[in-house]
Design brief:
- The structure holds two protein chains of two kinds.
- Chain A is built from nine helices and ten strands.
- In chain A, strand 4 and strand 5 form a beta hairpin.
- Chain A starts with 12 loop residues before the first strand and ends with a helix.
- By secondary structure, chain A is an alpha/beta fold.
- Chain A is 37% helix and 24% strand.
- Chain B starts with a helix and ends in an 8-residue tail after the last helix.
- In chain B, helix 6 packs across helix 8.
- Chain B is mostly helical.
- Classes of the chains: A alpha/beta, B mainly alpha.
- The structure holds adenosine-5'-triphosphate (ATP) and magnesium ion.
- The site of magnesium ion has 4 residues of chain A, from helix 1.
Chain lengths: 251, 245
């Protein structure tokens, strides 16, 4: 399972010159970025610039045309790669939560460890309880997604991903579908995770949050990374005119 | 019980209403056996047709073009031909062909066996379409979440897609299964002793067509009513709080 060629002082996620097209439409035009273990990076950029596509390529929900993506040193788009090994390492949370509506919150969290990792059900139940508590949903474990608010569902979705004990978490605009009041509760959960040292790659429109949590901010536009840097310098000293324009529109 | 039988005999004696299935033990027993045959013929065919529907809807998602074509051909064939001809086809043609192929004498399956096979394939063809519509109603994003968690394709189908698809397609499944139950009467044509077949035997022996016709109506109404009741209970039991209404 562990790649012996990978050491934790090397990037845990690494993209090199990634190209991705949907038919004739080239969405990623040579994207490179490195994420170190425990780092939190935020990807920002205008709608349609390929942010979702970028992180979906990292856990192979989308394929790529050329370039390379590695997670813990293993090539993600190697046809010989066991996808299961990748999905164990990389958790993903979606904008629309995508919970299983026919399962309770607890069952949503328990299913993957039981089915995919074949772990003992009682152990998984204990783990799931702990995770539910961690995302501050005690008392809601037996509710169905339809009985939970958007923010609560999103936190179940986070717990569901964490139950697989991933090394890296991908978040794709996870607060974009939420009411302003519930955004905060989800962000707090993510902040807790980051503080515990989880490697996080977030696509977000929450600039205040990005500034607070990110080690690096990447600005994408038109399928390329225009510029990146730590939040302190990124927001105040953006160099590229496209970045400046984008920031002036949303800040 | 005895006085009930006597009352029906009185009905015959005084009013000429000849319900031998109540006061004649021989008729009564063969009629009960007929209803029992309808019951398990229906139950078995319903079960197998659902299995075919679930498997067919799965195969229709296959990446192999020829696999999808085969399933599509099966559906078109069984949906667009009369069930009675399908039954004859299995009972006479397929049985003979298989017997020859394997060098069996006396038939591969009896009339009951071929009735089950034929009816299951008949209703199964509709079930494939019904389940496929259900499968397509499950959002891609939901199955994608399962994919991202490492589920295999079969696990996604078994634990996410199917349970959600079932809930969507229950109304159409309901009417197809009612239709299947009613279509079990075609087994009459190859002498499976189901309700209609024994009713026919009884009215030939007793000259009570009118009475027996009415009995047959009532039996099927009760059977269908029972099936509808079962399906509604099932629908209720899998209802998810806060979902799909
Ligand atoms: N499955 C697909 N098939 C074809 N085109 C797609 C597909 N997914 C995305 N695209 C296209 O790729 C481009 C980038 O989409 P993507 O979803 O990555 O953008 P985004 O940066 O996440 O935008 P947003 O901020 O609106 O979520 C868009 O032009 C989109 O229409
Ligand atoms: Mg997006």
């Amino acid at each position: 399972m562990n790649n012996l060629n990978w050491a934790s002082d090397q990037p845990i996620v690494s993209l090199k010159n990634v190209h991705k097209s949907f038919g004739d439409l080239e969405v990623l035009k040579g994207v490179s970025l490195d994420v170190m273990q425990g780092e939190v990076i935020c990807i920002i950029g205008p709608s349609g610039s390929g942010k979702s596509t970028l992180i979906r390529c990292i856990n192979a929900l989308n394929d790529i045309q050329s370039g390379s993506i590695t997670v813990e040193g293993q090539e993600v788009h190697d046809p010989k790669l066991n996808k299961l090994e990748l999905r164990k390492k990389v958790g993903m949370v979606f904008q629309q939560y995508n919970l299983f509506p026919h399962k309770t919150a607890l069952e949503n969290v328990m299913m993957a460890p039981v089915l995919v990792l074949k772990q003992n059900k009682d152990d998984v139940a204990r783990l799931a309880q702990t995770l539910i508590r961690k995302v501050r949903l005690d008392g809601k474990e037996h509710n169905y997604p339809g009985e939970l608010s958007g923010g609560q569902q999103q936190r179940v979705a986070i717990a569901r991903s964490l139950a697989m004990n991933p090394q890296v978490m991908l978040f794709d605009e996870v607060t974009a579908a939420l009411d302003p009041e519930t955004v905060k509760e989800v962000l707090v959960t993510i902040k807790d995770l980051a503080a515990e040292g989880m490697t996080c790659i977030l696509v977000t429109h929450e600039m205040g949050f990005a500034r607070e949590i990110a080690d690096q901010i990447y600005f994408t536009d038109g399928g390329v990374i225009v510029e990146h840097g730590p939040p302190e310098t990124f927001f105040s000293r953006a160099k590229d005119p496209r970045t400046k324009e984008f920031l002036s529109q949303i800040l | 019980m005895e006085f009930v039988w006597e009352w029906f005999y009185w009905l015959y004696d005084v009013h000429g209403i000849k319900l031998t299935i109540f006061y004649d033990e021989w008729d009564r027993n063969r009629f009960i056996r007929g209803m029992w045959t309808t019951f398990h013929l229906s139950a078995l065919s319903i079960f197998l047709s659902i299995v075919i529907g679930v498997a067919g809807a799965w195969l229709q998602m296959s990446n192999l073009v020829w696999m999808r074509r085969i399933v599509q051909a099966y559906i078109q064939f069984f949906r667009n031909t009369p069930p009675l001809i399908q039954l004859y086809f299995f009972y006479f043609a397929v049985d003979a062909a298989l017997s020859q192929l394997f060098g069996i004498t006396g038939g591969v399956l009896g009339s009951y066996g071929w009735a089950v096979v034929s009816l299951s394939f008949f209703a199964g063809a509709f079930n494939v379409e019904i389940f496929r519509a259900g499968v397509e109603s499950v959002p891609r994003s939901t199955t994608e979440a399962a994919e991202a968690l490492g589920y295999t394709r079969l696990q996604i189908y078994r634990y996410v897609t199917l349970p959600l698809a079932f809930r969507v397609c229950l109304p159409s499944l309901n009417s197809n299964l009612i239709n299947l139950l009613k279509t079990t009467t075609v087994a009459y044509a190859i002498a499976v002793p189901e309700t209609l077949y024994v009713a026919n035997q009884i009215w030939s022996d007793e000259y009570n067509v009118f009475e027996m016709m009415n009995v047959v109506w009532i039996v099927y109404i009760v059977f269908v009513g029972f099936l509808v009741w079962l399906m509604h209970r099932w629908e209720k039991s899998i209802k998810i709080p806060g979902y799909g209404n």
